[in-house]
Structure formats: C-alpha cells, structure tokens
Design goal:
The chain is an all-alpha fold. The chain has eight helices and no strands. Helices cover 57% and strands 0% of the residues. The longest helix has 17 residues.
C-alpha cells in the first residue's frame, strides 16, 4: 500500500486538488426534477464546495448518486473531508458504497468518473487507500478494493 497521509494531510491535499473545480450551474446540480433531487439542489445551490455544513452533508449522505457528473465532481470533496473527519459516521459508509458501486461498470457511470481529472481521481484513490488503513476491522475491504478498480484504474476520457 502507498504511503498513507495523516487525516490532516489528506484533507489539505483534497482541498488543494479540487480547488479549481467549477461550481455547477443551478440547473445542473441534479439531472432531473423530483422532490428528493429538488431538495438536494435547493440545499446546496448557494453553497461553495467547502461551505456545506456537516449536518447538511449528513442529511444528504445517501444522495451522491443524484448529483450530475459536474456537481459530483464539485461536491464530492466535501463528503470525502467529512468522512475523513468522522470515519465511523453513516456518511462514510454511504460514501464507500457509492464510490465502490458495481454501477460504475456501466457506461453511464463510467462517464461520471471520466469527468474527473487524473489528479482528482488520484485523490479519490488515495482516500480509498486511507480508508483501508482506517477501517480494516469494519468489513469494507472488498468494497474498497472494488472502488480501486473504478477510481485508480479508469483513464480520463477525451476532452477531460
């Protein structure tokens, strides 16, 4: 396993790597309109990627799949940082299950990964390695290794 940074180092590196990701337009935070997506859009529309309060992240802990690819790229760092700060939280479990989902084998979900730059994917990969070092006893190793297949080995698509 790679050198694993401390939680403080990893949070700082995530902030640095994702700092220039453009904010998605209001209409592009989610890909369709339904009560759940509308609520997510409204709750996050006026917030910067690192301004989302922990209670809002926790409330929307299972909503990562509702984000458009652009919004996922913009808001995922906040979820990762919260998860690093609170590794035993329910949010961490949802982030693991999302990042390590079998759905990323489909072309639609591969496009969600391709929008990330190589350095951004490396940060997600480093996050997965960090969690492996922190959660070994919680039974997530199979999921985290599946996540490596998605985030650590997928090449960037054209134009990204």
């Amino acid at each position: 396993m790679k050198n694993i940074p401390t939680s403080e180092e990893l949070r700082a590196r995530i902030r640095e790597v994702f700092r220039l990701v453009p904010r998605p337009e209001y209409a592009n935070i989610v890909e369709h309109s339904c009560p759940e997506c509308d609520e997510l859009r409204e709750d996050l529309a006026q917030l910067g990627q690192y301004e989302v309060p922990n209670d809002v992240l926790d409330y929307h802990r299972n909503d990562l799949s509702l984000f458009s690819p652009e919004a996922l790229r913009y808001f995922l760092p906040a979820y990762l940082i919260y998860s690093i700060e609170k590794p035993d939280s329910d949010l961490t479990e949802y982030v693991i299950f999302f990042l390590c989902s079998y759905r990323f084998a489909t072309s639609e979900w591969k496009n969600r990964v391709r929008i990330f730059s190589e350095s951004e994917k490396e940060m997600v990969c480093l996050y997965l390695h960090y969690l492996q070092s922190q959660t070994a006893s919680r039974g997530y190793m199979t999921y985290l290794r599946k996540g490596e297949e998605t985030w650590c080995r997928v090449k960037q698509g054209p134009g990204g």
